[in-house]
Amino acid sequence: MKAGDYLVLHDTGAYGASMSSNYNSRPLLPEVLFDNGQARLIRRRQTIEELLALELL
Predict the structure, then answer these.
(1) Fewer CB near the last or first residue (10 Å), C or N of the chain?
(2) How far from chain centre, in Å, is Cα 39?
(3) What does the pLDDT average to over 35-50?
(4) Is 25 left (phi over 0), alpha (psi -120 to 50) or beta?
(5) φ, ψ dihedrals at 38, nearest 5°
(6) What cofactors does this protein use (predicted)?
(7) Taken in order 37, 5, 32, 8, is the CA torsion positive or negative?
(8) 18-41: buried (b, 16+ CB within 10 Å) or exposed (e) per residue?
(9) Mean of the per-residue pLDDT values for the chain?
């Protein structure tokens, strides 16, 4: 691999948005859709501020 190459992880199960969680305070990952060779961001990465917004401590 070199800079600019794509790395695709097929069938990632619980790591997609539908089954993801913030376990261990990990922010949700972005999602990229490849359509006709074009990469499109379809869900942006969750920020640390968004992750901590519901904390009451």
Answers:
(1) C
(2) 14
(3) 92
(4) left
(5) -100, 125
(6) pyridoxal 5'-phosphate
(7) positive
(8) eebeeeeeeebeeeeeeeeeeeee
(9) 85
